[in-house]
Specification:
Strand content: 15-25%
CATH superfamily: CBS-domain
Structural class: alpha/beta
Number of helices: 8
Helix content: 25-40%
CATH class: Alpha Beta
Distance between the termini: 64 Å
Keywords: CBS domain
Largest sheet: 4 strands, mixed
InterPro entries: CBS_dom (IPR000644), CBS_dom_sf (IPR046342)
Protein name: CBS domain-containing protein
Strand order of the largest sheet: 1-8-7-6
Pfam family, one: CBS
Number of domains: 1
Shape: globular
Number of strands: 8
């Protein structure tokens, strides 16, 4: 054990009797359909993205989603620096694994993330500069048009290298709009968002 007389323990502070609140990143603000889109984006410079490697099993991926409370995992290479693809809870729990197992003539338990993920060359994204000019309604329309519950946002670093900067989630947008989500079914989520927009 390393002891250093120059480092003293920090003083303690009491937890406020009125309550200690979570950061805004974990309590996103309520929004309206014409609020800035950036208010419903998960900013990956503030909140770490949930990742998994392509060699992990589908059961590993499912457990990871449950433990982190997410429905999307970014698939990364072994260095954990490069995006290899993405997978959602639908990819794990839908018909994709059944079809992949039949095609490869293996049991479902033998499948890996690589067998059902959306590979990076088939992914598309929104650009952060377009997102900065958009409203929440534009994001809802984009997700619905694509038939997806999630969308990723990319930008460039100082060297011009593309990097992932954000993620949109239909369920998070619904929560921030004040829509009660009773099901994971995407069509129901969009119907409930549209009811809020229409003032029903």
């Amino acid at each position: 054990m390393i002891e250093d007389a120059s480092h003293k323990p920090l003083p303690k502070t009491a937890i406020s009797a009125t309550g200690c609140h979570l950061l805004d990143a974990f309590n996103p603000p309520a929004v309206k359909i014409d609020s800035p889109a950036i208010q419903v984006m998960t900013d990956l410079s503030q909140v770490p993205v949930a990742t998994i490697t392509a060699s992990a099993t589908l059961d590993d991926a499912n457990r990871s989603m449950i433990a982190r409370g997410v429905r999307l995992l970014l698939v990364v290479d072994d260095s954990h620096r490069q995006v290899a693809g993405l997978m959602t809870s639908v990819d794990i729990l839908g018909e994709k694994p059944v079809l992949a197992a039949q095609r490869r003539e293996v049991r479902r338990q033998e499948l890996r993330v690589a067998d059902v993920m959306v590979p990076v060359d088939r992914m598309d994204a929104m650009h952060i500069e377009d997102v900065k000019k958009a409203r929440v309604g534009h994001i809802v329309a984009t997700l619905k048009a694509d038939g997806r519950a999630h969308a990723i946002v990319v930008g460039q670093d100082a060297q011009g290298k593309q990097q992932l900067v954000g993620i949109f989630s239909a369920s998070q947008i619904a929560r921030q709009l004040g829509v009660q989500i009773h099901t994971h079914e995407m069509a129901r989520t969009f119907a409930e968002i549209e009811a809020v927009i229409a003032g029903v």
